[in-house]
Amino acid sequence: MFLYSFPLLLSQLIFLPTRFIVETFCLTKIGYEEFALFQFLGIIQIYIVFIISTVSNPIISALNRSKFTEKNKWSDFNLSIIIAFSIFILSLILKSFLFYFLGEEYYNSNHSEIVYYVLMIITFVMIFKTSFFRIITLSNKTWISLESNLIWTVCLLLGYFYIFNLQPEILRLCYSLLLSFIINIIYLIIRLLLNKILPFKIVLSKPVLLTVFFLFLNHFLLDYWYLQLSLLLFYLFFNFLFITKFFKYNA
């Protein structure tokens, strides 16, 4: 039990203090509008990830019925990415409302649009990452979580102090966080594939490919919320067809 839980504990002891120290170091050097905007979005990010994890974990566990089959890996992996993408698009659609709630001084703060967009991408990655955590935990490979968080820490520090050190302070922090989370998720995918914990056909399943394609399309629709909403509805419709077909042939 100790060898099972210790890597998870150590992962959090690395992740949380590192992010806190880097964010504190950055936020003491920026204006109060940027500071307030980042903190507000950070709180929203925490609530979104917490609520989604709390709601989705029992549902996915019920679908899996405590059995860790390839079918359950498929459903866990793909449902997580579908939920993550849906929340990401909704957050972009609701951006104007959130900025209105904050006030004009925050909306007009330096780089507010970029900060919002980058933090929502990070939220998307964090929600998607919950499926990896379940797979790692059920496979009794918790040391992989520790490895990935060590890599995350190194990437964050390198990004903030070296790679993006010429960027404005708030963008320096956001880009560093984005880099660390993206490399973290790529490492997890590669590690799980090499250990044959996650089949390659799941990583390249239709919902995943559809998500990548729709993420690309969304880049051209950032100024049109109604088109983003249409995009989300089409995305959910096609994924409903994919999931229904998958469970029909794997009953």
TrEMBL record:
Keywords: Membrane, Transmembrane, Transmembrane helix. It comes from the Bacteria. The chain crosses the membrane at residues 36-56, 77-102, 114-132, 144-164, 170-190, 202-221, 227-247. This is Polysaccharide biosynthesis protein.
